[in-house]
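Exercise 3.2. Students should predict the tertiary structure of the chain below and write it as structure tokens, then compare their answer with the key that follows.

Predict this chain's 3D structure.
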Amino acid sequence: MRKDRKIAIALREKGFSYNEISKKLEVPKSTLSYWLSDLKISDKARKRLSVRVYKGSVAGLIRRNKNQTILAKKRADEIRSVAKKEVKYLLKNKLFLIGISLYWAEGYKKGANGSKWKAVDFANSDPEMVKIMMIFFREILGVKTEKIKIQLMAHPNIDVGKAVNFWSKLSGVPKNQFTKTCCSVNSRSKGKRNKNTLTKGTIHIRINDVRLFFKVIGWIDGLKDILLGL
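Answer key:
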């Protein structure tokens, strides 16, 4: 029997994988499979193999996740960069200028600075402002109604049913696209008469689209540069 085959058998009986043995002996795995396929190994050796396979799987998953994160960041940076360059051509569009300015002031932006959640999210209680943003999302961002979700943030003095009906009619978004209403109580107002004037509550208009999120962020970047003369 070849010396390297004897060594391969001994290593396999200790629980070494084909990859490990192949690297040590510089023998193709196909050859090892021929030599070792009928070899019976101990439970201790099998345990070593199982542990190594598990560790290898975890390490592989970590590498894949890291690579996916790098690729996702690269795609996001590209979308943001292209959108930033578009702004100078869009400034004459009043709807664009108003919509992106309102989003800059009231929209969700943390996803561009490390937060894991990355989606377009605009919150407000002003019906006229909500109307403008709905037009902005549809006409400037090209978002179809079925892609839009709305969440009502309600205080105790609000009739949730009436509020949902109001915002659904105003936004044109069907009630079945409203997510669970969030009812909040300000700790400073507990035990006191609620004098909240937001009788229709506040709504979050949400579009779960990472590409559109970074497009909006890129537009804000471009607007900042122009306004600040950078």
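Discussion points: DSSP finds eight helices and four strands in the chain. Residues 187-194 have pLDDT under 50 and may be disordered.
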